[in-house]
What we know:
Elements: E1 3-8, E2 21-24, E3 27-30, E4 33-36, H1 43-51, E5 56-59, H2 63-67, E6 75-80, H3 88-102, E7 107-112, H4 117-132, H5 137-148, E8 151-157, H6 161-165, H7 171-178, E9 183-188, E10 194-200, H8 203-216, E11 224-228, H9 232-245, E12 251-255, H10 258-264, E13 269-274
Parallel strand pairs: 1-2, 1-6, 6-7, 11-12
Antiparallel strand pairs: 3-4, 3-5, 8-9, 8-13, 9-10, 11-13
Bound molecules: heptadecanoic acid.
Amino acid sequence: MTFRIISDSSSDVRNLDNKLYKQVPLTIIADDVEYKDNQELDIKKMQMSLSNAKNSGTSCPNIDEWMTTFEGADSIFVVTITSQLSGSYSSAVQAAEIFKEKNPNINIKVIDSKSTGPEMGLIIEKLDQMIEEGLSFQEIADNITEYQKKTRLLAALSSLDNMAKNGRVNSAIAKCAKLLNIKIIITASSEGKLELITKVRSQKKFLNTLLEQMNSNGYSGGKVKVNHVNNPILAESIQSLINQNYPQAIVEITPCQGLCSYYAEDGGILIGYELK
Length: 276
Ligand code: X90
């Protein structure tokens, strides 16, 4: 069996240690310039051009872009950003149907992460681990559905302008974040929609609120991925707070790629974590 794991670029997973993984870029558009969210993207340059742009937006991979990554594998897992906020899942599903019609013997499963960024990263790493362990396609497909019930996303953002501008969040929620120094804490609901948890002002209270939120959802020392937009210092504070409380917890820090950098905006933090 030739396994492959594929995701769109909202996963922030640039590569895995092995060659099983491929990524399909989303696109960020600043006025009439298109930035493909691939490994070559210069995120700083994109952010500069976005800050001067009158209009900006994003688009998801099309069917052909997904299809080109399927070639050469017979057991394929595709992981996409939440279908509630993007057409990525739908175009991957259509690509999979066409590919399967032409290649009836392949196994392909398209997974709606109902989330993005670090929670997708956890799903991808779990798939990778199960492939390494030698599980069958069907076992992996069943187990990953169970695993998804035990992962969560938290995000702490200072601005939701780009989400509001693109109709991805209602304007009442976006306005909360406008006030100076306020961070809003949001999560992905079980259906994969953006859900406001709370707003916080002080940095100290903010960190504790994040940990309290994780604990109240049932966090007890599982793997954590902290993805940030130009904010390694905050990411490290979150890492040490988690490790003070759960010394054995593996907490990995990763800079966001283009798509999450655009929507989470400068300074934004996304936390994906495993429940036990
Ligand atoms: O298809 C497209 O053009 C992509 C649209 C993506 C829109 C949402 C991106 C969210 C990025 C922001 C904070 C996390 C919110 C999570 C809610 C599920 C990250």
